[in-house]
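Q: Structure for this?
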Amino acid sequence: MGTIARCGIERSEPVGRRGRAFDTLLPIVSPEGIPDEQFVQDVRRILESRQLTNGTFVRELERAAASYLGVPYCVAVSSCTLGLVLALAALDLRGEVILPSFTFHATAHAVAWNGLTPVFADCDPRTFCIDPNSVRQRITRKTAAILAVHLFGNPASVLELEDIARSAGVPIVYDGAHAFGGKAGERQLGTFGTAEIFSFSPTKLVVAGEGGLIATRYRTIAKRLRAARNYGDAGDGDPEARGLNARMSEFHAALALGGLGGIEGRIERRNRIRCRYESRLGQIPGIRFQQICAANRSTCKDFSLIVEEQQFGRNRDWLLGVLRQENIDVRRYFWPPVHRQKLYRGMGDTRPLPVTDYLSDRVVNLPIYSSLPDADVDLVCEAVFRAADVAGAKATGAGL
Ligand SMILES: *Cc1c(COP(=O)(O)O)cnc(C)c1O
């Protein structure tokens, strides 16, 4: 097959003039694992039972998730954000929490809501996850905990991070919002650290509408969290700690429970889409990808490109504009990085985060979901190839 020149666009010709890759906008995400008929029947059952919350669907979801993850305790909550807030609160911390800046800001909000100081660490240019060396450099006497993120579903360096946490004598908690079903080696994410918190909001791998799940190996933590999500009340009307209403409703649990089935197939499909993007787009100079260690499994919650202006010929924002003209919904996850957002600017350790800035300035996220057909993946790739041609990127290998 030809090179990108085969697309046959004159360098000066606007990309839009050849028509768009898609007649209607190709969305970047599409909620998946949503059972239709079963869910409607479940809703009827819930209505008939008159038990709309604190019922059998939440218990069954917790049981099924614990069994799938291979972790003794799962506590369903109304969102991952509240799960993170309550998990940190359950540890009764004071001082600083080390977390990545290249993440969704909810990770940092959970720290801030607990009155703790976020200390941002840099990330690894290959995995995009928090860099253990940067964490090591930020450990002080004030460090209360480490909060790592499995970014886009790619496992963080769990073993190294847990060594660091152990030496420092602090707990480690994971924001696993993207990562339900991911694996570090043979071990499921959800079995690491003091707790791992997953999101079941519509852009994630399991969808509850809104919802989250805390997985932990520790009975006392699970017990505290069950009380905490219920106004702090363990059942005797006399709370030991300040709680919230962070319960998941039966309806949300029924939706998530339906989505648990089929998760393996969806993760496989997402990984095949990732490989398809990579094998095609990897031929374009100045385009590179997040690396997933061969022993691990990413959920591929997102798929991102890094655009190197020098070789590609144009910068990330230019590519973003061109792809939007092609009717492809593309995003910058995550820009601005959290340490540059107005809420967190200048907070904690203010040493520079060069890798975070570098990735955040170059990242483009492309559509990925298990229902995305190969033909659409190919159309997205062709649009990127046309853009590369206009940008003047020089192809090195065979094109599409
Ligand atoms: C989506 C997301 C959250 C928040 O999850 P909710 O369930 O919407 O509260 C937290 N952290 C990261 C990294 C996320 O992407």
